[in-house]
Amino acid sequence: MLPNDVPESDPEGELSSPLAKKTRGGQKRKFGAGTAKSNQSIPARLKSLESTVITLKLLIEDQRKTIADQAKIIEEIRGVTKLTGIDCTDEFPPLTNSLTRKASPKSCALYNEVAKRNPKVVEVSNRLDLVTDIIAFNKKSCTAVIENLPDSKEESQTVQDKSFISKFALDCALPIPIEIFRVKCKNESSVSRPTKVRFGSQVERDDFLKGFYGSWVNYSGRKVGPRPVRARRDMTREELNVLFAIRKEVYDANAKAGLIKFVVHDLKIVELKTPRPLPQAKPLPPASSTTSPAATASHA
């Protein structure tokens, strides 16, 4: 071994030097000095560990409170669903903005002051909104809406609709509605009022919607109007606003592509594996405005 070569196990070169032999006393003094230096950091380390333990305990306690609060809310929702008759074993229907909306201050200054002193005021108000949404969805869960069905706007239209839709459902082996009626439109110049069809259960409503398009396009007795006839589930006002916005986007995308490349299924946009040609535009009655963008968005 050369004089400057030092083994890795002897980083300070003490063992390789002929003069490096130390007395036991010297070794003890050196070891003692290192221990004293190490002992000086122990209080600081203990203090840091104690601080960490306290932080973790507070975090655990906070999580326990959160879990308890959420468990309470879950039990309350379960109680509400039992009262309204909603079956939560299936996929829960998408709620409106009652679950996502933040507790916004009311316009009344007195209410804001009361809410600050008693947070339960806002909590109970939001809970009532949630219950209202659940009841609304439960009421709409058995209803479908047929759009663009030719409308004479006469009083006898309801009788004609009941006869025609019932026969269509019977001929195509679809569930037969128990109630059929037209919905009033804010715009009196609308070409056709939406037709609501109510069923005995949500399962029947869903089966009707699943089989509607395939049955309608192949039905020899179907009524043809200026816009394609289609069916959807009954929606809340918030959902309808989203639906119309999505249809507008799909209409623009299809117009740009020159094909029906995208369609709207419920509140989702689906790209077709095999695009279809755009339908030929048909003239509208004089009382109506120009064709709505939703007309060529989707009728799948």
Structure summary:
This protein has 300 residues and is α+β, with helices and mostly antiparallel strands.
Describe, in plain words, how this protein is organized in 3D.
With 300 residues, the protein is α+β, with helices and mostly antiparallel strands. The chain has three domains: 71-141, no CATH class; 146-234, Alpha-Beta Plaits; 235-300, no CATH class. Helices cover 47% and strands 11% of the residues. It contains seven helices and six strands. The chain has helices at 24-39, 42-84, 109-117, 120-140, 157-171, 202-217, 237-257, and strands spanning 143-147, 179-182, 195-198, 230-233, 259-265, 268-277. Strand 5 (259-265) and strand 6 (268-277) form a beta hairpin. Helix 2 packs across helix 4 (120-140). The N and C termini lie far apart (87 Å). Residues 276-286 have a biased composition (Pro residues).
Structural class: alpha+beta
Q: What's the CATH class label of the largest domain?
A: Alpha Beta
What profile does the largest beta sheet have?
4 strands, antiparallel
Helix tally equals 7
Overall CATH architecture of the largest domain: 2-Layer Sandwich
Unreliable segments of 5+ consecutive residues: 1-20, 90-105, 287-300
* N/C terminus separation: 87 Å
Order of helices and strands: HHHHEHEEHEHEE
Using only CA atoms, what is the Rg?
A: 36 Å
Rough outline? elongated
Q: How many domains, as an integer?
A: 3
Topology, number of strands: 6
Which strand order do you get reading across the main beta sheet? 2-3-1-4
Query: How much is the average pLDDT?
Result: 76
Helix content: 40-55%
Here the CATH topology of the largest domain equals: Alpha-Beta Plaits
**Binned strand content:** 5-15%
Biased composition (Basic residues): 21-31
Biased composition (Pro residues): 276-286
Biased composition (Low complexity): 287-300
Region (Disordered): 1-39, 276-300
